[in-house]
Design goal:
Blueprint: H1 8-15, H2 17-25, E1 38-41, E2 44-47, H3 92-118, E3 139-145, E4 150-156, E5 172-173, E6 178-179, H4 204-238, H5 253-276, H6 279-291, H7 293-296, H8 301-317, H9 324-336, H10 342-354, H11 361-365, H12 372-383, H13 404-408, E7 426-428, H14 435-467, H15 487-499, E8 506-507, H16 508-530, H17 533-549, H18 559-569, H19 585-602, E9 604-606, E10 618-620, E11 622-629, E12 632-639, H20 641-650, E13 654-656, E14 669-673, E15 676-678, H21 695-702, H22 709-719, E16 722-725, H23 727-738, H24 762-765, H25 770-806, E17 812-813, E18 816-818, E19 824-826, H26 837-841, E20 843-845, E21 849-850, H27 855-867, H28 875-884, H29 886-894, H30 909-923, E22 932-933, E23 937-940, H31 944-952, H32 956-961, H33 973-990, H34 994-998, H35 1005-1015, H36 1021-1033, H37 1043-1061, H38 1063-1081, E24 1087-1089, E25 1095-1097, E26 1101-1109, E27 1113-1122, H39 1124-1153, E28 1159-1161, E29 1164-1167, H40 1172-1187, H41 1191-1203, H42 1212-1221
Antiparallel strand pairs: 1-2, 3-4, 5-6, 7-13, 8-12, 9-10, 11-12, 14-15, 16-17, 16-20, 18-19, 21-22, 23-29, 24-25, 26-27, 28-29
Helix pairs in contact: 1-8, 1-9, 5-6, 5-8, 6-8, 9-12, 10-12, 14-15, 14-20, 15-16, 16-19, 17-18, 22-39, 27-28, 27-30, 29-30, 31-39, 33-35, 33-37, 35-36, 35-37, 36-37, 37-38, 38-39, 39-40
Pfam families: RNA_pol (PF00940), RPOL_N (PF14700)
Keywords: DNA-directed RNA polymerase, Membrane, Mitochondrion, Nucleotidyltransferase, Transcription, Transferase, Transit peptide, Transmembrane, Transmembrane helix
InterPro entries: DNA-dir_Rpol_C_phage-type, DNA-dir_Rpol_phage-type, DNA/RNA_pol_sf, RNA_POL_N_sf, RPOL_N, TPR-like_helical_dom_sf
């Protein structure tokens, strides 16, 4: 007998009831039954009983405890002397009674047996003995006829979970009746009976052998009875301090006896299963009782304790120790039990102390829902009445030397109006309503109602099928995910996706992921409401916004610190930072695929809906097709032309958006950790990543909170900038959009302006030559491609303008997060300041500031920058040019569509027009210095990538070309490269090189700009050639037959020019590339830490696409070893991107402390006109501070420590190089 030790496992698992149910609910399955078989050996008959019934082997068992109809053997199949009776009263009356009811129910038994064989998962019924006794589940009734008398025994079937190993239970012995514990079926030879109702005749020696086996079984049963008695005694001792059965359920003595008998029956069954090692059977059995209220009232805590001890032992067997969450669950259970012994609570607290887990950390590290925190405190107060949870209120600061001054002197001033509204779903756009449009809208509305009804019915049927499914336990079912929301919500999500489906169709993977993510986001929001977190969040948020609404008081705390203090002050109740698990990508896709399958199968329309000439029949609205992309077969969902035509003709003016894709109408929640911030309810990741990559999440979890403070505060600074819409400009853009658009002004025209797709009949094509047919095919392909592009651009513009029009009278915010390199992005995807010229033009700061003495001049300089003119002119020269064209500026502001239209020739026409309007309003004001301006002025970097390379390599020539060294006029690296390439061309032309002669007069800044800009970010010669080829094709006069040769020649010259201008750049790139190659070859991914302490890891792995079938075939991307090519090619540009992001964050932080409104578009910084000089000063100071750090040396040390620790590597060349570059 093994003694169960007293340890943390015992009391933890006994009182961690909620944790048990979290495990139990995840494994909900119906009870499965075995096939009933009848076998006979000599005078021994086995009738296999079901698993679901519970009974006591004693005669005092209730006749039918659970209200189930007993199943009995077929009449005539259990005939032996004495019938099937045991003990006394086994005469004629018993036999006659048995034959009557057996004959009456034989047909019903036959039907039920057939159903059990055909359908898995049905609940088994208990087998009733001839005296009405309920038998133990999984046992067989055994009748042994001997000359001495009749003895009965119970045998159990071999457990499937134990792979047919023998199991035995204890039993008790009677004078003529032996109630034996289950004995392995292997102990008794079994042979099918050949006849019905007749016992096979056996020789006397075999009968004697059977008698001997029966006596042997009796001796074993007695031994097991003694063992069971010891087990029960141990259980009794362990349960002395368990919660007793609920007394209110017992009304009188008879009811108490039945209640106790049922509990003993259930307890015996659970103990038997646990003793035999069949844990799954016991688990399912207890759960089946818990799910039904009528049965749940028959249970007591001791029954749950049996299973909790089992799980505790499994935890210990796995080599795991309880953590804070484990002890928290145990204390919560004790707090919910008013009769819990203080001695037990003290044992838990002592065990925590022995494990080195302070009690205070329960309240700082654990996640609480609803009243869980209060229950834990109640348990602790039982033994420590004066205990108070002390949350550390000392704010830690970031250890980076770059932000040391920032955190020592913090001050800010904000003037924001607070409007706490969370949901914004629809926006409209005005159209000229025609009768046909109204008809199509009504028709579409009717069809949506029909589809809605069909999808609701299909979803219900699908859930029923999944609920009754008997798939293996190791395979997770979609059923729980289909029960998280109301059926109407699922259907609304599906129907909403139709309006976003392009006529050319959408990838099944993309569509499924979109649907699955929508379900997940809605579930997360509802989960927070269920956990009672919303009320607490609202209270803290109201106090937090007081900080942002103040306009006359300076605060010495950052938004993150303010939020942290408020949360510490309101520590009671649920935790704001939930522990919800992000759904794996495969779960999201499989759930979305299931919803798409419902749409494909059940959304139908009459074929004659738009054309009565067609025969009426129901046809699918969506089709699942396959296409090839990059030589890979891809699932595709394509709408039927009837649906496309209905949506186009209806010209629906309502667009529906999810709240998390819209700008916020209230300030974002500050980022206080990598898991909490941005939206109020919608879960948002601080760091974006590619699908399936989670290495960055692991790195962020390992970081100390203080190390991320600078990154978090910079994100908060960017997100706290308030915006509003430039209404006059928006109205002009909408008018052009509704009037067939304008490609010149980047306003996409409607589909009606798309080129017609050529149509050729079979007779005409028969006369064409093969070359002509190929030409016609290309025309058709190009026309279809053009139509698809125009549709995409038109819908994109429609989304942007609709959202802007909906927000025209609002103040709104853009919460920010970042990618794995640290580059920041607004969370709303459709409409933000990182968009096109149109969206940037309609955005202005919500907070206005006076222009001051130099603000108007900065507006004029900014205007010239937007035109793309005077790139090589000084600031004074640009200002002089702006003053010389004031007439054109004012005309553009007053008559944008009917005047000279000077603004339309600018590089950024809409931003140019917006700036013209702002200048006109300022110069016409009584005092321009007091004019309140909301207009953002941009300061763009001069090829920031080359700036960082020049600073890292201390390259003077390169630094001069990118304005790192003061010059009389601004330097333009693109023009410098173009000039040097032209010199190379002249030299080659004089040598008689044909292509150099052809390129005369065609080399310009525009031709080489993109290649120069991207070469620092890892563009190859092949990619650069394609870029230059595209630019040459845009030149009408350039001979098209020389495009390939010219692009090949120019890309070679551009790379040579950059190598001469930036001598250290290529060396640094080569070192980074070679380091990444060696790291990835060793099987590791490249990892580094930015100067602000942000850990970065490259998510490039060799992935293989595996087809798997859920509802339809789709793809699953499986990550493998690091992709060496991508790792080495991406390391140089990603490292530079991380430095660029670090510089932007430093600038944001110090602009915040200076009281500036600051936003960025990567290397382009925005602020008010009056604060441009201050921002420029901060920008330069932080760039110098950043590159004053030994960046390459620190990177080298990190890589050596990370990947080369313990190895003797020669690094003299690296030290030599670093000493020269930083010397």
């Amino acid at each position: 007998m093994h003694k169960i030790p007293h340890s943390y496992v015992d009391y933890f698992i006994i009182f961690s009831l909620p944790f048990l149910f979290a495990v139990l609910e995840a494994r909900i399955q119906q009870l499965q039954s075995d096939v009933i078989v009848d076998v006979q050996h000599e005078k021994v008959q086995f009738v296999k009983a079901s698993k679901a019934g519970i009974g006591d082997s004693s005669g005092n068992s209730p006749k039918n405890v659970f209200g189930e109809r007993p199943e009995v053997p077929k009449a005539g199949q259990t005939i032996s002397k004495g019938g099937g009776q045991t003990g006394k009263g086994e005469g004629k009356d018993a036999s006659a009674s048995k034959s009557r009811w057996m004959e009456k129910l034989s047909q019903e038994k036959k039907t039920k047996t057939k159903k059990l064989k055909q359908k898995l998962g049905l609940e088994d019924k208990p087998v009733k003995s001839s005296k009405g006794k309920l038998m133990l589940p999984g046992t067989s009734h055994k009748t042994i006829s001997t000359k001495a008398g009749i003895k009965t025994a119970s045998t159990v079937k071999k457990s499937k979970s134990l792979k047919n190993q023998e199991h035995t239970m204890a039993a008790s012995k009677h004078k003529h009746t032996m109630a034996a514990a289950p004995v392995a079926a292997a102990n008794v030879p079994i042979r099918k009976a050949k006849g019905k109702g007749k016992a096979s005749k056996e020789p006397a020696p075999e009968l004697s052998e059977a008698r001997n086996r029966a006596e042997e079984m009796e001796r074993k049963a007695e031994a097991k009875a003694r063992e069971l008695a010891e087990v029960e005694e141990l259980e009794r001792k362990l349960n002395q301090w368990a919660v007793s059965a609920r007394p209110e359920l017992v009304q009188d003595n008879s009811e108490a006896r039945v209640y106790g008998d049922v509990q003993r029956s259930v307890r015996c069954y659970l103990e038997a299963c646990v003793f035999c090692g069949d844990i799954d059977r016991a688990h399912r059995f207890l759960l089946s009782h818990h799910r039904m209220v009528s049965r749940r009232n028959l249970l007591n805590i001791g029954l749950y304790n049996i299973m909790m001890r089992v799980w505790a032992k499994k935890v210990k067997e796995a080599g795991l120790k309880p953590n804070l969450g484990s002890y928290c669950a145990a204390l919560e259970c004790m707090g919910r039990n008013p009769d819990c012994s203080p001695h037990l609570i003290n044992r838990v607290l002592r065990q925590m102390e022995e494990d080195g887990l302070p009690v205070d950390e329960l309240f700082s590290h654990c996640v609480f829902r609803q009243d869980e925190r209060d229950m834990v405190l109640r348990a602790i107060h039982t033994v420590q009445p004066d205990f108070q949870s002390s949350i550390n209120t000392i704010l830690q600061t970031c250890s980076s030397p770059l932000v040391k001054d920032f955190y020592t002197e913090v001050g800010h001033k904000l003037n924001h109006e607070v409007d706490i509204r969370q949901n914004m779903f629809s926006s409209t756009q005005d159209h000229a309503v025609r009768p046909c449009c109204l008809f199509q809208r009504d028709l579409l509305a009717v069809q949506r109602l029909v589809w809605h009804k069909a999808l609701v019915g299909a979803l219900r049927e699908g859930k029923i099928i999944l609920a009754s499914s008997t798939q293996k336990a190791v395979r997770l079912s979609l059923y729980p995910y289909l029960c998280l929301l109301d059926e109407k919500d699922y259907v609304d999500i599906m129907i909403q996706s139709l309006s976003n489906l392009p006529p050319s169709g959408e990838s099944l993977h993309i569509l499924a992921k979109e649907l699955g993510n929508r379900v997940h986001n809605m579930f997360c929001i509802r989960m927070k409401g269920h956990n009672q977190m919303v009320d607490k969040l609202s209270h803290i948020y109201n106090e937090y916004t007081e900080l942002l609404a103040k306009d006359s008081k300076e605060f010495d705390v950052l938004p993150r610190e303010r939020w942290w203090k408020l949360e510490a002050e309101h520590s009671s109740g649920p935790s704001l930072l939930g522990d919800e698990t992000h759904w794996p990508h495969m779960v999201v896709v499989e759930l979305g695929t299931y919803l798409v399958d419902l749409m494909v199968k059940h959304m139908k329309v009459n074929s004659d809906l738009l054309n009565s000439a067609y025969d009426r029949k129901l046809i699918p609205v969506l089709y699942h097709m396959y296409t090839f992309r990059s030589n890979k077969q891809v699932g595709f969902i394509k709408p039927h032309p009837i649906l496309t035509q209905m949506q186009q003709d209806a010209m629906d003016t309502t667009l529906t958006f999810d709240s998390y894709v819209m700008p916020m109408l209230c300030p974002p929640v500050p980022w206080t950790s990598a898991k909490f911030g941005a939206y109020l309810l919608t879960p948002t990741k601080m760091m974006r990543a590619v699908e399936g990559a989670n290495q960055h999440e692991i790195l962020l979890e390992k970081c100390q909170d203080a190390d991320l403070h600078a990154v978090l505060d910079s994100l908060n600074q960017l997100g706290n900038a308030a915006w509003r819409i430039n209404q006059p400009l928006l109205d002009i853009i909408i008018s052009i959009f509704n009037d067939k658009g304008s490609e010149k002004l980047d306003v996409p025209p409607p589909n009606s302006e798309a080129p017609k797709i050529p149509r050729y009949n079979q007779q005409d094509s028969a006369t064409f030559t093969s070359a002509e047919k190929a030409h016609l095919k290309r025309e058709v392909v190009n026309a279809k491609k053009k139509c698809s592009e125009m549709h995409s651009l038109r819908m994109d513009a429609l989304y942007k303008l609709s959202i802007a029009n909906h927000m025209r009278d609002e103040v709104f915010w853009f919460p920010h997060n970042m990618d794995f390199r640290g580059r920041t992005y607004p969370c709303p995807p459709y409409f933000n300041h990182l968009g096109s010229d149109v969206t940037r033009a309609v955005l202005v700061f919500a907070e206005g500031k006076p222009l001051g003495p130099g603000g108007l001049e900065w507006l004029k300089i900014h205007l010239v920058n937007l035109t793309g003119l005077k790139k090589r002119s000084s600031l004074a020269g640009r200002l002089e040019y702006a003053n010389s064209i004031m007439d054109d500026i004012l005309d553009s502001a007053d008559n944008p569509l009917i005047g000279k239209k000077w603004w339309q020739n600018a590089d950024e026409p809409w931003q140019t027009l917006a700036c013209c309007m702002e200048i006109a309003n300022a110069v016409r004001s009584p005092d321009p210095t007091h004019f309140i301006s909301h207009f953002p002025v941009h300061q763009d970097g001069s090829c920031n990538g080359l700036q960082h390379y020049a600073a890292l390599g201390r390259d003077v020539i390169g630094a001069t070309s990118v304005n790192l060294i003061p010059c009389e006029v601004p330097q333009d690296v693109y023009s410098g490269v173009a000039q040097q390439v032209e010199e190379f061309r002249v030299r080659d032309a004089e040598k008689g090189l044909k292509i150099a002669q052809v390129l005369e007069g065609f080399i310009s800044r525009k031709v080489v700009k993109q290649t120069v800009m991207t070469v620092v970010y890892g563009v190859t010669r092949y990619g650069g050639r394609l870029q230059i080829e595209k630019r040459l094709k845009e030149i009408d006069d350039f001979p098209k037959e020389y495009v390939w040769d010219a692009s090949h020649y120019l890309v070679h010259q551009v790379f040579s020019s950059l190598k001469e201008m930036f001598t250290g750049t290529r060396e640094i790139q080569d070192w980074l590339t070679e380091s990444a190659r060696l790291i990835s070859k060793s099987g590791s991914t490249v990892e580094w830490v930015t100067p602000l302490g942000l850990p970065i890891i490259q998510p490039y792995h060799r992935s293989r696409t595996q087809m798997y079938q859920s509802i339809v075939w789709t793809h699953l991307i499986i990550q493998g070893r690091p992709d060496t090519v991508k790792q080495k090619n991406a390391f140089p540009p990603n490292f530079i991107h991380s430095l660029d992001s670090t510089h932007m964050m430093l600038t944001a932080l110090y602009c915040y402390s200076a009281g500036l409104t600051f936003v960025s578009v990567h290397d382009c910084f925005w602020t008010h006109a009056i604060t441009v000089d201050t921002m420029n000063k901060v920008c330069r100071e932080q760039f110098v501070a950043l590159h004053s750090q030994p960046i390459l040396q620190e990177l080298s040390n990190f890589l050596l420590k990370k990947y080369c620790s313990g190895l003797h590597i020669q690094i003299k060349s690296i030290k030599f190089y670093l000493s020269h570059t930083h010397g």
